[in-house]
């Protein structure tokens, strides 16, 4: 990716999704794909599939359809997650075959609670050796995950007596984090609204970060509403403009969730032959996400269109 500069002299990080994945995602990497219900980086997952990446450790708190697809494509050797499922619409057929029957091969699976994963990202972002939490008390997870451990607090316990034993989780530091967002400027200042998850923490925890956005906006737009900037430019390596790149999830203010696809996925993924036919048609059979979008047709996208629900403007004030 050849870097140019913006009018202000800062690096222009805009590139294509193909170029970003080719440069920043390598075989054997630990790759984080984050976005909670909303702004799931599906197009990025598809591009990783197209480029045939192998041996990845995939970190995703809510392992869902895009994880199922990447598993079926042979990209993933290890999954780190705190939830697996088809987002209230059914099962993930490929994932179940891997875990339950090692079919067509076993999948290494590392499971944490949601808050445990949040703490792992916090530790990774802050470059801490571990992060303490209380929520594993009474849980079976420590028995099946040796990464969840106990340490002795260096301080007196709550009763002022002996220091307590408290659970800790290790940091996660992905080689690359990929997130989807509504908009960014050319330098990578990235703005998100609506449902948010751990996108910022996942970016800070990583060595490299790709931000995929619905639209590119001028610096002035970002500066006019700075509190929406969840991810600052200095943490971003590449900015990719990819409209509708979160489908079948939604992007608040841009398009709705494709509930029909979620409902159909369980039947598709239950049948390995049908799943691979789907990949052949919709991922391998499309050159990029633009072709994927075009193949769906404008009538399809019109069915996911959303109306306006504008936020009231705020007055940040300025010096007189």
Write a concise keyword list for the protein shown above.
alpha/beta, 3-stranded antiparallel β-sheet, 21% strand, single chain, 12 helices, 320 residues
Task: Describe the SSE topology.
Layout: E1 4-5, E2 11-12, E3 14-15, H1 17-24, E4 30-34, H2 42-50, E5 56-59, E6 62-63, H3 65-72, E7 76-81, E8 83-84, H4 93-101, E9 108-111, H5 114-125, E10 131-133, H6 141-144, E11 149-152, E12 165-169, E13 176-184, E14 190-191, H7 199-205, E15 208-216, H8 219-224, E16 229-231, E17 238-241, H9 259-270, H10 272-284, H11 289-296, H12 298-302
Helix pairs in contact: 2-3, 5-7
Characterization of this structure:
β4, α2 and β5 form a beta-alpha-beta unit. The chain has twelve helices and 17 strands. It is an alpha/beta fold and 320 residues long. The protein has helices at residues 17-24, 42-50, 65-72, 93-101, 114-125, 141-144, 199-205, 219-224, 259-270, 272-284, 289-296, 298-302, and strands spanning 4-5, 11-12, 14-15, 30-34, 56-59, 62-63, 76-81, 83-84, 108-111, 131-133, 149-152, 165-169, 176-184, 190-191, 208-216, 229-231, 238-241. It is globular.
The main β sheet shows up as: 10 strands, mixed
Give the helix/strand class.
alpha/beta
Broad shape = globular
Backbone CA Rg: 21 Å
Average pLDDT rating: 95
- The parts where pLDDT drops under 50 for at least 5 residues are none
CA-CA gap between termini: 43 Å
Number of helices: 12
How helical, in percent, are the residues?
25-40%
- Spell the H/E element sequence: EEEHEHEEHEEHEHEHEEEEHEHEEHHHH
Number of strands: 17
Strand proportion? 15-25%
């Amino acid at each position: 990716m050849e870097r140019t500069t913006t009018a202000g002299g800062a690096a222009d990080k805009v590139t294509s999704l193909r170029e970003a994945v080719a440069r920043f995602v390598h075989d054997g990497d630990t790759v984080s794909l984050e976005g909670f219900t909303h702004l799931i980086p599906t197009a990025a997952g598809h591009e990783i599939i197209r480029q045939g990446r192998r041996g990845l450790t995939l970190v995703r708190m809510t392992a869902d359809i895009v994880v199922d697809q990447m598993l079926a494509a042979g990209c993933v050797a290890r999954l780190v997650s705190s939830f697996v499922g088809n987002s209230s619409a059914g099962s993930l057929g490929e994932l179940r075959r891997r875990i339950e029957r090692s079919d067509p091969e076993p999948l290494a699976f590392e499971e944490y609670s949601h808050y445990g994963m949040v703490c792992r990202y916090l530790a990774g972002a802050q470059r801490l050796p571990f992060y303490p939490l209380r929520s594993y008390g009474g849980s079976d997870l420590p028995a099946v995950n040796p990464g969840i451990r106990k340490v002795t607090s260096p301080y007196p316990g709550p009763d002022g007596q002996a220091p307590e034993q408290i659970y800790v989780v290790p940091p996660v530091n992905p080689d690359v984090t990929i997130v989807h967002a509504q908009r960014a400027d050319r330098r990578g200042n990235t703005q998100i609204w609506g449902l948010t998850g751990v996108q910022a923490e996942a970016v800070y925890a990583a060595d490299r970060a790709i931000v995929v956005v619905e639209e590119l906006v001028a610096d002035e737009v970002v500066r006019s509403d700075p509190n929406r900037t969840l991810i600052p430019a200095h943490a971003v390596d590449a900015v990719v403009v990819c409209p509708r790149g979160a489908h079948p999830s939604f992007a608040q203010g841009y398009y709705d969730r494709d509930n029909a696809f979620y409902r159909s996925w369980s039947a598709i993924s239950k049948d390995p032959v049908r799943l691979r036919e789907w990949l052949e048609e919709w991922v391998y059979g499309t050159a990029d996400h633009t072709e994927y979008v075009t193949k769906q047709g404008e009538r399809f996208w019109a069915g996911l269109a959303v109306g306006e629900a504008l936020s009231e403007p705020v007055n940040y004030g300025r010096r007189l």
